Amino acid sequence: MLSGTDAGGAARWPGLADIAVPAVLALGQLGGTLLFNGVLGDPLDRRQWVLVWAGVLAGAAALVWRRVAPLPVLAATTAVGAACALAIHDAEVLVGGVAEVIALFSVAVRRSGRVAVVGTFALWAVVFLEFLPVRTGPGDALVTEFFNGSQFFVVLALGQLRRQRHAHRRTLAERLAAGDAERRSAAAAERRRLAQDLHDVAGHHLSAIAVHSAAAARVPDPGVARAALTAAADTGRDVQDALAHLVDLVAADTAEGRLDRLLPPLCHGLTRLGVPVTLTLEGRARRMRPEVVTAAYRIVQEALTNALRYAPGASVAVDVRYASGAVRIAVANTAPTGAGAGGGLGGGRGIAGMRERAEGVAGTLAAGPEPGGGWAVRADLPLAAPRRGPGWPEVVDGTAVVFCAVLPVLLSFVPPEPMVGGWPVAARAAMVVALVARALPLWWRRRAPWRAFAALAVLDLLWTATAGVASQTAFAVLVVGSPASLVAVYAVARYAAGRTWPAPFLGAVPWAAGLTTAIAVDPRHHTGDLAFGVLAGGGGALLLLLPFWAWGRTVALRVHRFESRALELMAARAGEAALAERHRVAIGLHGTVLDHTSRLVSTAESGLTDGADMPRALTAVAGHARAALTEMRQLLASLEN
Fold first, then answer.
1. 618 in the same domain as 508
2. Domain named Histidine kinase/HSP90-like ATPase: which ranges (predicted)?
3. Which secondary structure element, helix H or strand E, spans residue 366, and what is its range?
């Protein structure tokens, strides 16, 4: 049995596709040569036909091994094509520059980008030299080599994209094969998330209750004691609510929140507990990614908790400034004025957890002592996700824009057979600008395919309507520029969401309108010919656009089928593991932390109701808070094991 690839993805022996593609290509080369040199042009002599057959068959035989040895196959097909093209000495012979394209694609798929780029330039140079003797002048050479260069670089970029897609699929396959490891990883990730959220949600409030209640118990003022018990009861209920929602299947977080709405209640809550906190928001509130909002909120929360633990009595300043492309956070406290009441309350996760949250959104965090005493935490978080540098998709898009803009310009104005002749300089310049402008929307064909298509369709509609009235030559130039329409329709089918089938029909409207307008203003035609213009213009355009739409849809379905199934399976496995961790944490919370928190609230409420011995109630509240913190640390430690 023939096999194109082994289990590891490395080619070992030609498969059916390795043989079928060269066979179909050889038939196309021979048929095209017969068409151009037998039906449409001067026939070849016997010697030339022998060379054509020899070159085509030799190239096809070499292509069979293109996956096994792509570089030698590229060299062989290039040498065969060059030798035959020079020997035959006819530009209409489809030997040189055909099989080499398939070989170049294999090199781009199976070799590094550097090797593929070198191979592309080498092939381009050889093809230029082999057909140079049959060129009719500099203009002919310029147009042909521009077309060849665009073709080669598109093939190069598509091959490298296929290489990246194969690597991505191998990664997914490896992850699926390592199902147990993936489940363990998902469980560990869920443990880390729950541990961090548990530390942020409960540790902040419980530490505040413990510190403030212990301090208030030593103050012989019934008003202070009552206020402290009230705050402890309210904050304890907040802890109960937060912990009750922590392990929900859909945990409520700050995804839909904004810092200018989330931070004031946080800071005012500490002020209610007697901690002097000032909040400053500078700049216009920007739209941020949900993960950045969550990270910023948790960093401020943890920094305030640390200030409360380790600097009792110190004032805290929270500054949030929206800068260009980032939000900058600073939480600074002065030197502590009270006794170190926070000893033993920390779990050792504060600064490390804040730094992890900052780095998780591609930000930075620094924490350290201030020159005048005190402590400061500063974080810079980017508002937008980090952008990757330009890659092979941008190479394809850029080449498409340049090709669709420059090719019609060259064919229209460059000798030996320019389509546009005798036009004023201003008219020529206007046409060049228009041709370039209609190609520019293709740069956004991946990110906004419908918008790029709509912009091109509107420009084409204006062009065809104007050309139909003023100049048939301008209409012919637009026909030469039709590859832009093909690329736009393909992009909609490939990258747009939802229904894409209207694209080819909408793309045919400008051509139907243009031909109909040309017929309407031509006195040689009758009114009845308008229907012919609609059918011929629209139908002819559809014959070209529909295959490109179908091609785009096929690629889109094929690309997403494997990845979506793999990701769904991995998500299901990961979800089961994460759900198990949530249940484990829920059991631990109900048996330990929530129990002490409930006692804390009950003790505070009883102290307020009785009013006789509020200092004793405050001492008991502080004890329950410390016990809850101890149980929480033990639960966090169990999550790490």
1. yes
2. 294-384
3. strand 364-369
